[in-house]
Amino acid sequence: MKYKPIILLSLISLAILPFGCSQSKKEKADSDDFTGSTTCRQCHEKFYELWSTSHHGLAMQPFTDTFASNALTAMDTPIKIGQQSFKADIASRTLTEEGTAGRTTHAMAHAMGGKNVYYFLTPLERGRLQVLPLAYDVQSNEWFNTASSMVRHFGDMRDTPLDWRDPMLTFNTACFGCHVSQLAKNYDLKTDTYNTVWREPGINCETCHGPCGEHVRVCLAAPTNTIPTDLKLIRQKAMTMQQRDDNCAPCHAKMRPITAGFTPGQRFFDHYDLTTFEDQDFYPDGRDLGENYTYTQWLTSPCVKAGKLECIHCHTSSGRFRFAGEKSNEACLPCHQERVKNAIEHTHHDEGSKGSRCISCHMPMTTFARMRRSDHSMRPPTPAATIAFKSPNACNLCHINRDAYWANGFVKEWRTRDYQAPVLYRANLIDSAKKRDWRQLDDMLKFIGDEKSDNITVVSLIRLLAACEAPAKWPVIRKALKNTSPLVRSAAATTLSNDPSRETFDGLITATADDYRLVRISAAASLARYASSLLDPKCRKQCDSAFKELENCLMGAPDSWSSHYNIGNYYEERHWTSQALASYEQSMKLRPDVILPIVNASMLYARQGNMKTAMNLLRKALAIEPNNPAVNFNLALALAEQNNIADAEKHLRIALTADSSMAQAAYNLGVILNRNTVCEEGIKWCKRAVELMPNNRAYTDALKFYLDAQKQKTRDK
User: Fold this and answer.
1) Against a cut of 0.85, is the pTM above it?
2) Engineering a disulfide at 148: which of 144, 161, 477, 480 sits with its beta carbon 3.0 to 4.6 angstroms away?
3) pLDDT tens-digit profile of 204-224?
4) Which helix (H) or strand (E) holds 99?
5) Is 445 left (phi over 0), alpha (psi -120 to 50) or beta?
């Protein structure tokens, strides 16, 4: 018997989340039902003044001379970025770029933000509004490099700054949803152009209350001093706490839109998916690492989970604080009256000091990209997590001259109950799953199956378990399809795409009729690989409906390369090869520098027997990312199939250097090295493959075969 490398050309089936807070909006800027905020002023002067001067009302504004003189300071010294230097001239409302290609002047047309940072937009070709390379720090009154401030550091990994013209910094593509009101993107895919318009800059009254045209009409028609019974607008007071929170969430969550629009009063998980702790932007204990907004942490708060806290308890509808300065502790009333009353005893800090404020310990503030954000999980300080995972803790954010061991000593002295233990337990599970260390798999599965477990942690573990090969996970994840949380059910449906069992198939069919859209489309995505003939005629209609919802979701942002890439993956799962290739090609046109659609297109061409085109695409991807493990792995497999073993071995080694957890690469390298005679290094790589995927029968059989051959070789000597 002689083993061969597994020549399974592997597609990268990865769902791509849009950057940051990109929000879907209904294209309704020209609707007559929307009247604009000025019509509210005649009856609601007080609220208009509060709104118009708030961060919501000024989320975006025209760059005018008045704005510049009130908000900015002049820039004296240019900032060098690469080979170019940039300088803002607020008097002329321009930014000058100088370098090897000469001098270019960019108009500063709009200012976006303002709570922490002002970003500036300039019009570019084909209707794009682009974030300029210089931004303004409101706290320090200084200009800085926009893209370099957004660099994320994940342990030993170092991100690199984007070029300022990158589509991820294009307003029309990424950040439009939370800075203007009643926007119509008006993107034309054929010409790759925008004709984007909006009714008002900033987040106006009608964003939360809906179109007010009819409201104005019925109020004007009502007799003097008479309030109409039906006010013809969306009223926040008539909503549940969850509905009000869901109104805030779209702009304050790291999420993925799944529909073309959200209307106040609707449910968040009918329109959005949510990023959780599986993402690199979170530390294992759930503290902020990158730019995460607040909603994920908010859902882990004991106060929120108990149903006793909502966004507007602490914030007004215009985003202002209801309890600020000396009154900040009043935000924790009435639930924590005793602790607020005896703050010194509880906090162990002097009265009136920063440490005696509830938010200092329970909502510590950290900074990313010069933007300050408060931890909305409201957990107490956990310096033990800092020791274990290097995440920030409230104690050392204030006591910067001390370390976490010092802080941990006080925490243990002050609190007889070890409240840090559950945090560390959950974080250890997340950390192990991120590292693909499955020695705690039983504990992970037990946590997922416990109805009392934190839903955000459960979702994170289910998503991370997609990389685990152990069959023991499937019954637990199938059970999660019936969890009370739609986010948990959705995560389970997505991860179950890799379990081709009858039980899973039946569970996914049931999930296509779930009450929440997010669950339905997750189930549809996992069912896409099954032949339509397997669907019972009784459930065909509901499955087709879920497939249609999924297709609408995947193509919700036609200006995004990831939309075409993801729907290409969907078409490939359904064996619609021509549509898949067309989608990958469109994705490549929008972002020729991104390798994922290139690799997947190459694999489809290989499966069609068109190895020449497949190899050309793989080499194109390799030129973009020479050390990318997926590219090198797939190129190695293609080379092996052409019997170019030497080059295949070279690229497998590059892949494993970049990602030592690639079991497929380890196995194939082991088989190649053992192709003529069994050797120690070949056995080493086969052992590595088995360590990574102990339940893969092909890997265990091959290793046993090679070990037996090695013994026989020794005996023959």
Assistant:
1) yes
2) 161
3) 999 999 999 999 999 999 998
4) strand 94-99
5) alpha
pLDDT of residue 78: 97
CA distance 676 to 84: 55
Measured distance between the N- and C-terminal CA atoms of the chain, rounded to whole angstroms: 21
Q: Which residues make Cβ contacts (< 8 Å) with residue 586, sequence separation at least 6?
A: 189, 564
Query: Per the structure block, which two tokens stand in for 327?
Result: 């009154």
Helix (H, G, I), strand (E, B) or coil at 365: strand
- By the 10 Å C-beta count (0-12 exposed, 13-18 middle, 19+ buried), 148 is classed as middle
- d(C-alpha 289, C-alpha 531), whole Å: 42
Could you give the residue ranges of the DSSP H alpha helices within 7-44? 38-41
Q: Mention every residue, 6+ apart, whose C-beta is less than 8 A from residue 173.
A: 22, 167, 557, 559, 560
What does the DSSP 8-state code read for residue 282?
A: B
Q: What is the pLDDT of residues 274-302, one digit of tens each?
A: 999 999 999 999 999 988 889 999 999 99
- Domain locations in the chain as residue ranges: 38-234, 241-382+394-402
The pLDDT-based confidence of 157 (bands split at 50, 70, 90) is: low
* Whole-number average pLDDT of the chain: 92
Cβ atoms of 374 and 294 closer than 8 Å: yes
User: Tens digit of pLDDT for each residue in 34-86?
Assistant: 999 999 998 999 999 999 999 999 999 999 999 999 999 999 999 999 999 99
